[in-house]
């Protein structure tokens, strides 16, 4: 059973960089054909795909967030990370990591695995 767990600070100040880590167990992030994504859901809004990294290490980003987003991985720890720079209160959301065979993930598919999500608030 694949499990994903998000971790990181729950409170970030405006203009700072938000950093989150997704730790994966029960499966390798280098397994062929899977994408490892970050998705967020602001309060009162729908989920938004932010970007991801595939099994080979290639990264993909949402055009609307590309200038502020960086996704990387540590294969020795079976983790992948999200960095979002220059955050504002509009970046307040629940952030999820997920595994899918789809590159762009907005909703959970029948064969997807998602973490439980972590609340990140941007406030001074």
Q: How is this structure best described in words?
A:
The protein is mainly beta and 124 residues long. It is 0% helix and 48% strand. It has strands at residues 3-7, 11-12, 18-25, 35-41, 48-54, 59-61, 69-74, 79-84, 93-100, 113-114, 118-122. Strands 2, 4, 5, 6, 9, 10 and 11 form a 7-stranded mixed beta sheet that branches. Strands 1-3-8-7 form a 4-stranded antiparallel beta sheet, with no helix packed on it. It starts with a strand and ends with a strand.
Question: Approximately what portion of the residues adopt beta-strand conformation?
Answer: over 45%
End-to-end CA span: 39 Å
SS-based class: mainly beta
- The amount of helix comes to under 10%
Please tally the β strands and state the result. 11
Shape: globular
- How would you sum up the major sheet? 7 strands, mixed
Radius of gyration: 13 Å
Low-confidence stretches: none
Give me the strand/helix succession. EEEEEEEEEEE
Mean residue pLDDT: 97
Total helical elements: 0
């Amino acid at each position: 059973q694949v499990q994903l767990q998000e971790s990181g600070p729950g409170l970030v100040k405006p203009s700072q960089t938000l950093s989150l880590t997704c730790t994966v167990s029960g499966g390798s992030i280098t397994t062929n054909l899977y994408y490892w994504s970050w998705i967020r859901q602001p309060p009162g809004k729908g989920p938004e795909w932010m970007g991801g990294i595939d099994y080979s290490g290639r990264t993909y980003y949402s055009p609307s967030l590309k200038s502020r987003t960086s996704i990387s991985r540590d294969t020795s720890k079976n983790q992948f990370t999200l960095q979002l720079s220059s955050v504002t209160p509009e970046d307040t959301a629940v952030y999820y990591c997920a595994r899918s065979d789809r590159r762009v993930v907005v909703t959970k598919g029948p064969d997807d695995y998602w973490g439980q999500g972590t609340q990140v608030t941007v406030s001074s």
